[in-house]
Amino acid sequence: MAAHPTDRLGFLLSFRGELTGARIRAALGVVGLHPRNAMTLMQLAPGAMSQRELAAVMEIDPSQLVAILNELEDAGLAGRRRDPADRRRHIVEITPAGVEALERVDAAVGAAERELFGDLTEAEQVLLRGLLDRVVVDPADHECG
Amino acid sequence: MAAHPTDRLGFLLSFRGELTGARIRAALGVVGLHPRNAMTLMQLAPGAMSQRELAAVMEIDPSQLVAILNELEDAGLAGRRRDPADRRRHIVEITPAGVEALERVDAAVGAAERELFGDLTEAEQVLLRGLLDRVVVDPADHECG
DNA sequence: TATTGTTATACTCTATAACTATA
DNA sequence: TATAGTTATAGAGTATAACAATA
């Protein structure tokens, strides 16, 4: 007992995840975009959707999405238009300039991943993915005291 | 190209790490302590040290440590005393009550880890630890834009 | 003059609730 | 009355700089 943080697998995963996240966010920012704005662009790439859907997918509050989309719109990387079927809704879509920016972001993230996982063989990366997928993370019923 | 976030190993590690961290923090809070206060107690368990050393070990600013130690001291879980050799220094040490609290925290973190990694065999947990240790996370020279 | 711990300040993030316009 | 988006406000967290005591 009395295990030091660094001896525990939970802390190791948490800390490595944190640092990996920081490295990925640095890559996301390559175009001069705030990391969360780049993430939003990624979510929009497959196709347009309403703000509410987008907020649900990204698991953020709709009110936070407003500022993100304002910035993306000001930068000409995404656009909002009213849904004719329900004029309360905004349909959000990525612009051609947004697609271009996203390509550069994708390349930077790919490079970051090659750096992060470069010491692992392809097989080991598959193994790591498989193990991570089996870590039980159900955020429910564990509020932080 | 144009890989969706969830397809990328970097995002997977980052997100799992995030959720694992949340679960661990919930466990750290079991005694009613703020997670970072419990972390501080963990660092103090092996032996006393100065505030500056403690801040260095925990990689936080010394000014942030002040509030943490105030709370731990108010709760009777840690104590500060002047270093006779250099009266500028505070020597920080865990109290018997702090050790007791830490035992309960340790038990809760252990339980959280059994939950998180319960689907993995011992061998797989060792494997996961080995793979995580080989992820290259050198935070230097990658500022977030 | 440099160092230890402390205080004060400002900035970012996030969470919440009110507000508008449409339905 | 309920829903989509927006705005405003407050709280936590963090980073920085100024400060007092000691070396």
SSE diagram, text form:
Two copies of one chain form a homodimer.
Chain A: H1 9-28, H2 35-44, E1 49-50, H3 51-58, H4 62-74, E2 78-83, E3 86-94, H5 96-116, H6 122-133
Antiparallel strand pairs in A: 1-3, 2-3
The first copy, chain A, binds a DNA duplex (23 and 23 nucleotides) through residues 50-52, 60-66, 86-90.
Structure description:
Two copies of one chain form a homodimer. With 145 residues, chain A is mainly alpha-helical. The first copy, chain A, has a domain at 34-116: Arc Repressor Mutant, subunit A (Orthogonal Bundle). Chain A is built from six helices and three strands, in the order ααβααββαα. Chain A has helices at residues 9-28, 35-44, 51-58, 62-74, 96-116, 122-133, and strands at 49-50, 78-83, 86-94. Chain A has a three-stranded antiparallel β-sheet with strand order 1-3-2. In chain A, strand 2 and strand 3 form a beta hairpin. In chain A, helix 1 packs antiparallel against helix 5, helix 2 packs across helix 4 (62-74) and helix 3 packs across helix 4. The radius of gyration of chain A is 19 Å and the shape is elongated. Residues 141-145 of chain A have low confidence and may be disordered. The interface between A and B is large, with 66 and 67 residues. The structure holds a DNA duplex (23 and 23 nucleotides).
Structure characteristics:
homodimer; 145 residues; mainly alpha; Arc Repressor Mutant, subunit A; disordered C terminus; DNA-binding
